[in-house]
Amino acid sequence: MNAIASVRAQMPTAVPAVAHAAEATQYLTFLLAGESFAIGILSIKEIIEYDTLTEVPMMPACVRGVINLRGAVVPVMDLLARFGRPSSPVTKRTCIVIVEVQAGEERHVIGVVVDTVNEVLDIDAHDIEPPPSFGANIRSDFIQGMGKVKGRFVILLNVNQVLSIDDLQAAAGVPRDAAASN
After folding, report:
1. What is the pLDDT of residue 42?
2. What is the spatial distance between Cα 176 and Cα 129, in angstroms, rounded to a whole number?
3. pLDDT tens, residue by residue, 70-95
4. Which among 147, 155, 152, 87 is positioned nearest to 115, based on CA atoms?
5. In what side-by-side order are the strands of the sheet with 106-114?
6. Is residue 6 predicted with pLDDT exceeding 70?
7. How many Cβ atoms sit within 10 Å of the Cβ of residue 180?
8. Nearest residue to 118 (alpha-carbon basis) of 97, 145, 146, 88
9. What is the pLDDT of residues 9-40, one digit of tens each?
């Protein structure tokens, strides 16, 4: 997939340990139902082609299933379903972005389905506006900010909120203590 190869080529191999406030932050941009979204690249592990998923019973509607990623079971979330919207059809440009999220003391790896990956962009802090307090098509706590890029807005997602393990367990009806004991 050429888009994946070009995005991987743009991703840095080493990231400085300390970023200065004046420096831009890099974001991976992608489309969902024609809208531009972005996730900070420090949360992204890799991008893979969409392949067959194994469906798991009793999962929330936004979890499409799981994949085998080099021997690890990785849940795959449909972001559009998470936002309460109908899922997009799978096309040849559909990808799974593998993201690492923080949940308390633990880090979890989750795949997210995106319609197409665009590019890695540098967005300066002064080009990021706070999320709207109302009127957005998704929960405001899912939005880290609104990045201004080439005269348009890109929705910068707060991956730790969007992919919250606690929220997913609640949606599945799994008590927190029962999930922790597994």
Report:
1. 94
2. 34
3. 999 999 999 999 988 999 999 999 99
4. 87
5. 44-49, 95-103, 106-114, 72-78, 63-69
6. no
7. 11
8. 97
9. 455 444 433 344 457 799 999 999 999 999 99
Rounded to 5, what percent of the chain is helix, strand, coil?
Answer: 20, 40, 35
* pLDDT reported for residue 32: 95
First to last CA, the chain: 37
Element containing residue 135 per DSSP (H, E): none
The count of C-alpha atoms lying within 13 angstroms of the C-alpha of 81, restricted to the half-sphere facing its C-beta, is 17
pLDDT at 18: 39
What values do phi and psi take at 79, rounded to 5?
-60, -35
Measured CA to CA, the distance from residue 74 to residue 66 in angstroms comes to: 5
Q: Please name which of 115, 110, 92 lies closest in space to residue 37, comparing C-alpha atoms.
A: 115
Whether residue 97 contacts residue 111, with contact meaning beta carbons closer than 8 Å, is answered with yes
- The two tokens of residue 144 are 């880290």
Rounded to an integer, the average pLDDT of 45-69 is 92
Residue type, 99: V
Whole-model pTM over 0.70: yes
Between β-strands 116-123 and 25-32, what pairing exists: parallel, antiparallel or unpaired? Answer: antiparallel
Burial of 25 (0-12, 13-18, 19+ CB in 10 A): middle
